[in-house]
């Protein structure tokens, strides 16, 4: 068998792809990344025409750490002979389809990335002093360090989960929207559930395509609110804030994340404005569009009824309950970290956990393990409970990858800025003074 790798990546989404890109320039580092899919694909069910990535183009795989890297977004444009069109387009936020194409372009230039390889299990081999990965079809792979980048999974509201598995009714997650769009356009009555960017994009697309029948948009949030996009507000997506958040007590972190919903569940103002423009256009000549937008509404129960869906709704502020019958439901209700127990089953009892049973993750994104396991497991986008709402944010991808790479190599491969925000988060601790004396 070949000697153990220095680093093995499980899953190849944007975050592990970022790590693979930065690792590719480290001389002597033996790294391989495994993805069970046949090629890179990023949210294919939501590649709606006109949608953009919600972070600037500099939030690519490498630029915020190594802007001269050959796999930067600007290098991609140069390779495609598109630098001048991009320059004149004056785009700060690129189309979602372009980001997907960029990542696929980068993945095809990384020999360390292996598609069509499924990591079934990770265990610790004391005899080899390394982690043993069961990879199909490669077989047994040894690595001293493992980084988990398996991504997140779509989440449906609990009352609707049984119906989503019933082929007799039309209930789906927005992750599968494009494949179902034609049927939704033709349906008599459609309900979109979920207040975030995906819900807004699905609602807008259906609004533009449907010319008859009922269409409604329900959300638990008190308003269809814009995402926090002020310059100082965005500093909560900096390494400075991530470090501050990680140092907070667990109960405080758990209270903070839901309260910060407008940082990650809000809607871009462009999308909100486009929805209002479309609704306003339909009032020309008199009348109102056959559309309902209802915030503050939660789905508390659901059942199938002769091929339709009956929803029980509750408005918390009004303390009122109502029922709704609809032909189709699209749940734009977000994503959750995947359960890693089956993958890490053999070492599950060696993993340190917090009081809620979640994996403990240190400041360098290293999962806490029993002392006799000498290797390290790192987590990408599975640490919102320890690192805050920036965990799934593409703007922190390169910085997190560089942090992990520095930890794996035991030295500063990439110099990371000591300060990244004008905002000071928290007060000095340990009796230190603050301000002038």
Helix/strand layout:
Layout (H helix, E strand, L loop, with lengths): L6 E4 L3 H10 L7 E5 L37 H7 L3 H7 L6 H12 L5 E3 L2 E8 L4 E7 L2 E5 L1 E4 L3 E3 L6 H4 L5 E4 L3 H10 L2 E5 L3 H13 L4 E5 L20 H8 L3 H10 L1 H4 L4 H13 L9 E4 L2 E9 L2 E8 L4 E7 L1 E4 L3 E3 L38 E4 L4 H4 L9 H13 L28
Parallel strand pairs: 1-2, 1-7, 2-3, 7-18, 9-16, 10-11, 10-16, 11-12
Antiparallel strand pairs: 4-5, 5-6, 8-17, 13-14, 14-15
Helix pairs in contact: 1-13, 7-11
3D structure, described in words:
The protein has 437 residues and is α/β, with parallel strands linked by helices. It is built from 13 helices and 18 strands. It has helices spanning 14-23, 73-79, 83-89, 96-107, 161-164, 177-186, 197-209, 239-246, 250-259, 261-264, 269-281, 384-387, 397-409, and strands at 7-10, 31-35, 113-115, 118-125, 130-136, 139-143, 145-148, 152-154, 170-173, 189-193, 214-218, 291-294, 297-305, 308-315, 320-326, 328-331, 335-337, 376-379. The strands form five sheets. It has a five-stranded parallel sheet with strand order 3-2-1-7-18, with helices on one face. It has a five-stranded parallel sheet with strand order 9-16-10-11-12, covered by helices on one side. Strand 13 (297-305) and strand 14 (308-315) form a beta hairpin. The model has no long low-confidence stretch (mean pLDDT 95).
């Amino acid at each position: 068998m070949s000697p153990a790798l220095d680093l093995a990546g499980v899953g190849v989404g944007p975050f592990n792809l970022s790590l693979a890109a930065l690792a590719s320039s480290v001389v002597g580092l033996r790294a391989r990344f495994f993805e069970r899919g046949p090629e890179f694909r990023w949210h294919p069910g939501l590649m709606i025409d006109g949608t953009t990535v919600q972070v600037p183009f500099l939030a690519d795989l490498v630029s915020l750490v190594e802007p001269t890297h050959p796999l930067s977004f600007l290098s991609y444009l140069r390779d495609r002979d598109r630098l001048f069109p991009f320059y004149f387009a004056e785009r700060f936020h690129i189309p979602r389809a372009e980001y997907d194409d960029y990542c696929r372009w980068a993945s095809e230039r990384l020999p360390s990335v292996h598609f069509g390889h499924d990591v079934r299990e990770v265990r610790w081999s004391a005899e080899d002093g390394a982690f043993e990965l069961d990879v199909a079809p490669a077989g047994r792979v040894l690595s001293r360090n493992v980084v988990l980048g398996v991504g997140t999974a779509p989440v449906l509201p609990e009352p609707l989960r049984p119906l989503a598995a019933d082929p007799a009714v039309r209930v789906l997650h927005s992750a599968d929207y494009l494949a179902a769009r034609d049927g939704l356009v033709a349906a008599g009555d459609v309900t979109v559930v979920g207040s975030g960017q995906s819900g807004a994009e699905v609602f807008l697309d259906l609004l533009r395509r449907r010319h008859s029948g009922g269409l409604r948009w329900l959300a638990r949030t008190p308003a269809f609110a814009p995402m926090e996009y002020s310059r100082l507000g965005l500093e909560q997506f900096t390494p400075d804030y991530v470090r501050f958040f990680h140092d907070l007590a667990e109960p405080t972190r758990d209270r903070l994340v839901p309260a910060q919903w407008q940082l990650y569940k809000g809607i871009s103002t462009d999308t909100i404005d486009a929805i209002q423009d479309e609704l306003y256009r339909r009032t020309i000549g008199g009348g109102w569009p056959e559309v309902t937008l209802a915030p503050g509404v939660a789905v508390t129960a659901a059942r199938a009824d002769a091929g339709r869906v009956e929803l029980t709704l509750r408005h918390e502020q009004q303390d009122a309950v109502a029922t709704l019958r609809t032909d189709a439901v699209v749940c734009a209700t977000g994503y959750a970290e995947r359960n890693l127990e089956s993958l890490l089953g053999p070492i599950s009892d060696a993993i340190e956990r917090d009081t809620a049973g979640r994996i403990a993750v240190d400041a360098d994104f290293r999962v806490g393990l029993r002392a006799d396991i000498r290797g390290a497991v790192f987590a990408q986008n599975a640490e919102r409970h320890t690192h805050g709402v920036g965990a799934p944010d593409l703007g922190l991808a390169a910085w997190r990858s560089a942090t992990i790479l520095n930890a794996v190599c035991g030295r500063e491969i990439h110099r990371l800025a000591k300060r990244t925000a004008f905002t000071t988060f928290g007060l000095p601790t340990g009796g230190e003074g603050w301000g002038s004396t």
